Automatic annotation (TrEMBL):
Stated family: Belongs to the radical SAM superfamily. Biotin synthase family.
Stored InterPro entries: Aldolase_TIM, BATS_dom, Biotin_synth/BioAB, Biotin_synthase, Elp3/MiaA/NifB-like_rSAM, rSAM, rSAM_sf
Protein name according to UniProt: Biotin synthase
Cofactor binding summary note: Binds 1 [2Fe-2S] cluster. The cluster is coordinated with 3 cysteines and 1 arginine.
GO-annotated biological processes: biotin biosynthetic process
Top-level taxon of origin: Bacteria
Class of enzymatic activity (EC top level): transferase
């Protein structure tokens, strides 16, 4: 007696996952030159945590197309700390912060030059010179104009200056002295901005970026996610950056520092942070995307996954908070099979300045 073969069991779609191939199809469209819509960008942020591997795999296709497996390293120098008259609620250096941070005026030449040496030894492509201020005064402008040519001549580093709000004339002076790029983050969406700062506006920040662009420098601008904004706010910021033509996008994940108005803000999950990073890659496919402050705190053991969509990181500390030890970053990049690229082709892992 013959036994009838059993039919193949049917597998019902699991409603916890997005439709099979959905994110890959979005990546294919982006690579074909068709931007995704705001609704599609929002769908990435609203996706189930179970979709994270598929989202990252699709985002990696875009990242690899433009950047391969390269990783750019950035070094951040807090050249003037505290003493800021602005009331940015996330910032430990603002006038309303009670956080115990160092307070000092712009550092002297030798200190800025020594930090550039450390940046070079760590394999950084770009030295980021940052001051806390509404905007630079004449003494600070003169200090930057003096040190930038010396750093570039001695170490060959690209220079990114973050000096606050800039006039068109100040932007032209920075270009003339050799600054390659200016950082001025949008920080959030236009609609959310008044909830995190009242001493200047979103429009003020956009105007600074336009002044930078018109002066012939690259724009570095991103934001901070996890400040109580909606998912639609994060999407709006990503699209505003695309429309401005920003070349480099640092994405910070809020470190809710004690003593700031955002102290106690609920932490963003690693999965939500990864989805946001991927969304920025889909919306800004050919732009440098950097995992910035808060990656160690929020991504934790999932940090390597972020580099499947981002292509740069800061190596070392941030403005007033500690970063991961540089050697851990080098190991992470090597374990991924990625490679550091930039102005410095070789860097020393044995230097005392590297190991901190």
């Amino acid at each position: 007696m013959s036994v009838a073969s059993s039919p193949e069991p049917s597998v019902a779609a699991d409603p916890r996952f997005s439709p099979p191939g959905y994110f890959d199809a979005l990546a294919t469209r982006v690579l074909d030159g068709s931007p995704i819509t705001r609704a599609e960008a929002l769908s990435i942020l609203q996706a189930s945590d179970l979709d994270v591997p598929a989202i990252l795999a699709a985002g990696y296709r875009i990242r690899h197309h433009y950047f391969g497996n390269s990783v750019q390293l950035y070094f951040l120098m807090n050249a003037k700390s505290g003493l800021c008259p602005e009331d940015c609620h996330y910032c430990s250096q603002s006038k309303i912060s009670e956080a115990p941070v160092p307070k000092y005026n712009i550092l002297k030449r030798d200190e800025l030059l020594d930090a550039a040496r450390v940046a070079s030894e760590r394999g950084a492509k770009t030295y980021c010179l940052v001051i806390s201020a509404r905007g630079p005064n004449e003494r600070e402008m003169n200090a930057v104009e003096t040190i930038v040519p010396e750093i570039k001549q001695k170490y060959g580093l690209d220079i990114c200056a973050c000096l606050g709000l800039l006039t068109d004339e100040q932007a032209k002076r920075l270009k003339a002295c050799g600054v390659d790029r200016v950082n001025h983050n949008l920080n959030s969406s236009e609609s959310h901005y008044e909830k995190i700062c009242t001493t200047h506006t979103y429009a003020d920040r956009v105007q600074t970026l336009r002044n930078v662009r018109d002066a012939g420098m690259e724009m570095c601008s991103g934001g901070i996610i996890g400040m109580g904004e909606s998912k639609a706010d994060i999407v709006s910021m990503a699209f505003d950056l695309a429309e401005l033509g920003v070349q480099s996008i640092p994405v910070n994940i809020l470190n809710a520092i004690d003593g700031t108005p955002l102290e106690g803000t609920d932490a963003m999950s690693p999965q939500d942070a990864l989805k946001a990073l991927a969304m920025f890659r889909f919306v800004n496919p050919s732009r440098e995307l950097r995992i910035a402050g808060g990656r160690e705190l929020h991504l934790r053991m999932l940090q390597p996954m972020g580099l499947y969509v981002a292509n740069s990181v800061f190596v070392g500390d941030y403005l007033t908070t500690k970063g991961q030890a540089p050697q851990a970053d080098y190991d992470m990049i090597n374990d991924l099979g990625f490679e550091v690229t930039g102005s410095c082709e070789e860097f020393s892992l044995d230097s005392p300045s590297v190991s901190r």
